[in-house]
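Continuing the batch. This is chain 6 of the set; chains 1 through 5 are on the previous pages. Same settings as before, nothing changed between runs. Recording input and output for traceability.
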Amino acid sequence: MHGRARLLVAAGAAASLGSSLAAGPLARVLWMLGCLAGAAPLLVRMVRDRRSVAPAWRLVGAGFAVRLLSDLVWTVEALTHRGGVPFPSWNDLGYLTSYALLIAGLIGAAGGRARLALLDASILMAGFAVIDWMLLLHPYLHHAAIGPLALSLALVYPICDLVLFAAAVRALLSGAARNRANRLVLAGAGLLLAANTIFFAHAASGSTRDVAWLDNALWLCSYLALGLAGLHPRPIGERSAVPAATAGVVSSRRLLLFGAATLLGPAATVYRLLTTDGSHGSGEWQHLVVPSILAAVLSVLLVTRLGGLARLAQRRQAELEANGRRLQAALDERAALEDQLRHGALHDPVTGLANRALLAQRMEWSLDRADGAAAGPGHALLLLDLDRFTDLNDAHGIAFGDEVLIALAHRLRAVAAPGDTLARLGGDEFALFVEHGAAPGSHERAEQLAELLRAEVKAPLRVGGRVVHLAASIGLVHLDGQEPREAMADADLALRAAKRGGRDRVVRYRSQLRSARETFTRISAGLRHAIERGELAVHYQPVVELPGARIVAVEALLRWTPASGPVPPDAFIPVAEETGLIVPIGAWVLQRACRDARGWYERFGTSITVNVSVRQLADPGFADEVLTVLARTGLPATALVLEITESVFAGDADALPGALTRLRGHGVRIAIDDFGTGYSSLSYLNQLPVDMLKIDRSFVPSGPASEGDHAFTRAVLQLGSSRRLPAIAEGIETAEQAEVLHELGCRLAQGYYFARPGPAEDLEAAFARLNPARDAAAGRPA
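Output for chain 6:
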């Protein structure tokens, strides 16, 4: 409470005490001054802030102002008539006007839609009407000392108090009391009603009206409450809406008020019966009719209120049930979404099969389900990869490829047992985890199942009006105590072996595959840094002309000698091919070989042959790279022979002629290495720009023999002669082999019999031994 409020309270207390202790006119003057001082802050604020105060509350303020003015007139009349004020008098008009203004203002302050508040106020008014009847109305009706006008006016005042009481209660219950300034104004109205009730009960007999100290104190406190409202910082008239959650709800305090209101009628009746002495005759009982009527009205209002509460409870129950249904629907939707997400996290979105995560879970669960190592040996894992499935996607599109995968998954499901787990790991790779327990013959069943899967994949598959032919490579591993991750790695090794073995086959995991893979990893890691470490070298082996063994060409052969010791070419060349390292290594070999061969070409007219990988040929810039090397080293294009293996024809052979034809247009010659050992490429000899054939050592005669033993060698030589393709025989190790080849018509050969591969320095000795010194211009490349 701030200083001005304390001062106001102190002034009001002093005025009340002074009026109580003083006597005569001084008491009335002190009381009137206290009322004026108490109400002044509210009246001043109403005038000052009239634009911000709601019209209804301005009416309330006007009602209190008229009341204060009427009190002033009443005080003057009391002083004039030396304590007794006539009844009725002119100041009664002011009091009745103040009632009208207060009632109208409080009705407006409650708001137009405060129906429940009006009902509750009516219940309380009906209860307190019984008190008014017993204490005020009934005594006035039986008072013979006043005339009709005074009697009518005496009855109007209690009725106006009842209506004012109902309007104040309605405003209080409709949310106006949430503002403290409003509560103080309503408290002033309540104190006014209490003082009026006591005053009228005291004045129920007699022709003049006078007051006691309690009346004065309550009226003074009423004006003091108004003054405190005027000093409060909250705007007068500001009201807050009742929260929707509590709208229509009856609080415990309100129930207590309802209970008290219902008991007032019976209590007053009992009181009246106990105090009745029968002196008034038979008419004495007539006054009980009004309390009975009021009790009936109160009962009707309470029933109406209870009916509203019942409807509210039903509506809230319906809302709760609806909210419960919505909540249950939301929970069901969430559960369905969680199931969908869980299913999506563990299943392939295309085929609906288990994915890698679910496969790992099933494997772990199955391996952990049994105790010890007894359960492991009966299980098997199969990895299936479709061969050349990317060709189908390239030809018909990914959407059609997905349809093929869906149809194939349906077919594979029919093969798998109910307890097995079929999964798609991604792309065109599938897995099947087979659970056999430790039953005898489980290994054989797994291998039979792998062959059955391969057969099912190979069977024609009709998808979208097309018939698709597929093939699959399968890796199989029997679980013997491995963890799921180790089993997957082992099965993948077997699958890779099936791919390298020619595809469309089943390969069972063997420990040698892991050893080979470890070797592969070690070699690939070393090859990545072999060039920068200077571990690579190019050795050269002469190609001689039969029968004199003059060197006409030199083949460049790659050698790798890391710190751990030399690694055979057949061990590291396949690794370089698979990892793609053959591309930078092949470029380094081509650069080194052409640089070394330039001097031999200028001195002896020899050409250089360099092996080229299919990975290098697949590079669109390969032809430009070769021509750049020739220009940089100064070696003529006619002195370079590129050797390709028959394996290149197993790929996209149609893409090769462009690069090879361009190089041949610059004078570079093309040779097919190891002819006859790989892919059947005879049909491509008419299409590809080939200049030479190199006969593999497996078809070179070991010595003199019958005509039938040399049939294939003779056929190859005749094929080359008919196509004007010179043939070079490889792997010549004896003089007998060289003699037989010469007799069969082979003009060129190479092998240990003539010279072993060696560095460029060692080749100088071979030139000195096999090629007599001569003018380079007289020489010609092979």
